[in-house]
Amino acid sequence: MIEIRRTKWTRLKYVSCTLAVVSVIVLGFIFWPRTGALSPWNAGRIIDDNVFYDTNTFASVQDIQNFINDHTPACDTWGTGRSEYGGGTRAQYAVNRGWHGPPYACLRNYHENPNTKETSFEKGGGWFSGGLSTAQIIWNVSKEFGINPQVMLVILKKEQGSLFTDSWPLKSQYKYAMGFACPDNGPGNTANCSSEYAGLYNQLRMAARQLRLYANRPNEYRYKAGRTNYIQYNPDAACGGSWVYIENQATASLYNYTPYQPNQGALDAGVGTAHCGAYGNRNFWRFFNEWFGSPLNSVKIDSPLSIKTEKTGSKLFTNMEITASFTIRNSTNQRRDLGVMVIVGRDSNSNNYDFGSQRVVLEPWQSYTYRASTRLNKEGDYKFWISNYRDGSGWSDNYPESSAGNVREVTTFVQSPPTVVSAVTAQISRIHKNQPVNVGFQVKNNSAKPVDLGYFGLAITSPSGKNADVVFDTVNQLSPGAVYNYNKEFLPREEGLYRARISGTLDGGRTWTETQYPVATDASAGNRTTFTVLPSLTLTQGITFSSANPRSGDSVTTTFKLKNSSNQPITTSEYTCLILRNQSGQNYDLGCLSPSTIQSNQELEFKATRPFPVGTYNAYFSTFDGRRWQDYKTPPLETGQEVVKAEMRVLPDVVLSEGLSISSTTAHVGEQLTGTFKLENLSSSVSNHNQQLCYIIRRRQGGNYDLGCLPTSGIPPKSQSSFSLSRTFNEPGEYEAFFSLYDNGVWREGAYPPGLTGKESSRTTFTVLPSLTLTQGITFSSANPRSGDSVTTTFKLKNSSNQPITTSEYTCLILRNQSGQNYDLGCLSPSTIQSNQELEFKATRPFPVGTYNAYFSTFDGRRWQDYKTPPLETGQEVVKAEMRVSA
């Protein structure tokens, strides 16, 4: 079957019962909208397949309806408007011409029932129950046969353009609106339409079906894609034609539907006509451009498929984030729904590693970049490609098409990445400015194939932020399982903190794999490290005394050391001095290292030896630059532990080696106590001092009880002299013992020789108790007895002296209940208590219910003294007590 497209007169109506047909080759009077530039005309590629068969260009029926509304005039359904041709209203003019009267159904309002064939012309000019709108019919047939609804609209315009301009179209204008089944075999090459396919629904559906048949059965039709075809310029063979290579099926379908191409005259005529011209396919090309943009490359993938990681580029490794991407551009002025885009991934065993699907809807002129990431954990060969799924079209690996040169399939090997199996280390632990040191790490190939480490090494940043990288290596092939030992010399030019990280590039320097490739492991400490670079000249030994506690007169050697650890000589400009001051601020400075040139790796030692008098000395550094002194300014430290401030205590030859002590801190009147201390001569000769160290005792209530003195002279070298004296104390009370130094006829209370360790005791206290004391306070056999129970109450007195004691008072145990009633228990009468004898008071009786308070009282024959208690033995004895008797 050969169809010819036809357009309607701009204003002529079809006469009743007579079809006025104008061939597309004769009439070219069409209203052309004002638009921008058209896409280039290519007779062999009028429209791309991916546009022609894209059913997702409109998101809904309403979108198609909106398009029709935007491209058609308002309707004069009842013909009430003034006729463009005179003769009254439009309805009056139609009647006068023999056309049918209103209602008139505009394209935007047209509805048709496919089953009953009823249309808006019979149903009031618009919607009616069971009727399908033009937009709905186009939507349905596009989805049914997989034809772009834009294509259906453009064919409708080129075949019956008046439907897009007429505000009161006649029913006859819809009859063969798509030109389907209207071959140009009528008289004079006019259209010869078949009434079997009349009506807009039939025209749209059969046209879409025919376009699908061209694609499904390409060998059954005249014009074929992928080959050269002879195409006439006009139904009149005398007008000639040319051979055209038809590049795709969509273009072949247009030629099978409208079997002519425009000649150069028709193309040059623009909206006009030319001799032997044919305008169907020309108009299709123009209308599509004006409404929807270029039908060529309208939606294209305009970048290569990229499969790469951020840092290693197209060389892919397992367990790294691999990103797949490509860019799609919509070069039309219409919204395009591309359906679902996906990047398919398959390994050599066809296992699925897809990157995931993304629904892509492009606004006019919009570009969209598909980007998705995944991680592959298995080494092997992989293939990735772009694929698409659209409702009604299924899966396609070719839609949208790719621009020339943009690959849409990538085959690659995904490799197990090499790992850093050792931390970045330096040859020495402490690095100095200008001191060469080797730094390095180890890399292992974990793959079954050789691995390309690229150009890699240690990137190092100096403390000032400058580049201090060491030499990088190029290792293009490391054998499976092999370990590469990276080891390079690092020469720091600054002092301070250097930051180092493993870095490399696999693409000639376009991207760098900072710390990420080779892959870090626990052993590599994240492929990062820091180096603290010390100054070239450092203090390697701080202030050191040969003895921190020498004796007066002993010689003491004091030292410190400086070292140049760099690879070149250093000339100093300052004096580095060792300052020494005693507790009075007197100067005992030891000297300086003068400005000098210190050779590479040379260590200078300062040393000074001299004796010191007794005292405490503080040592520190100071520098002198020829003009001023800077106290406490020290050379840079090597480890940070070097001593820059030190104390030396010079002791006398005689010291207190054991401090003051007393044989007991608690005694009774009449007891003998012994006081001791020791002196030690630490020197190498007999001590010769006109001093005596005395053991002094004073009673707080008054009285001198000194034990005696020990001379500090005459003590043999490296020997001790002991003091030990005893005496009897007959006065109770608190005593204090301390030293006093008798020095050349002058008493210096509290003074004594320095202690050997500084912890020797120089003062103590003790207590002398009376001979008779309370050794057991008030005690109840039960503190909470029942009424009627017998309770035994006791206390004890003891004579701790070595002779009898005769008492003169009654020592009584008083008991009162809560009402103050008397329940006294009795007394110990005056008596003679023998040496070391302990007397016990004991009384037993029952008590009625109540709370009782017990305390001591004494009676001397004339008066009572409540709460007067005997002297306590330890101070913890109970002298007041409570007993609660319950029922």
Description:
The chain is mainly beta. The protein has six domains: 244 residues, no CATH class; 117 residues, Immunoglobulins (Immunoglobulin-like, Sandwich), CATH 2.60.40; 116 residues, Immunoglobulins (Immunoglobulin-like); 114 residues, Immunoglobulin-like (Sandwich), CATH 2.60.40; 116 residues, Immunoglobulin-like (Sandwich); 114 residues, Immunoglobulins (Immunoglobulin-like, Sandwich), CATH 2.60.40. The protein contains ten helices and 52 strands. The strands form 14 sheets. Strands 7, 9, 10, 12, 13 and 14 form a six-stranded mixed sheet that branches. β31 and β32 form a beta hairpin. It is elongated. The N and C termini lie far apart (129 Å). The N terminus is likely disordered.
In short:
This protein has ten helices and 52 strands.
Note the topology:
Blueprint: H1 49-52, H2 61-70, H3 90-97, E1 111-112, E2 132-133, H4 134-145, H5 149-159, H6 172-175, H7 200-216, E3 227-232, E4 241-246, H8 249-257, H9 264-268, H10 280-292, E5 299-301, E6 306-308, E7 316-317, E8 321-330, E9 336-347, E10 357-362, E11 367-375, E12 380-390, E13 394-396, E14 409-415, E15 419-420, E16 425-426, E17 431-432, E18 437-444, E19 454-461, E20 473-475, E21 483-490, E22 496-505, E23 528-534, E24 537-545, E25 555-564, E26 570-571, E27 575-582, E28 591-593, E29 597-598, E30 603-611, E31 615-624, E32 629-631, E33 645-650, E34 654-662, E35 666-668, E36 672-681, E37 691-699, E38 708-711, E39 719-728, E40 733-743, E41 746-749, E42 763-769, E43 772-780, E44 790-799, E45 805-806, E46 810-817, E47 826-828, E48 832-833, E49 838-846, E50 850-859, E51 864-866, E52 880-885
Helix pairs in contact: 2-4, 4-7, 5-10, 7-8
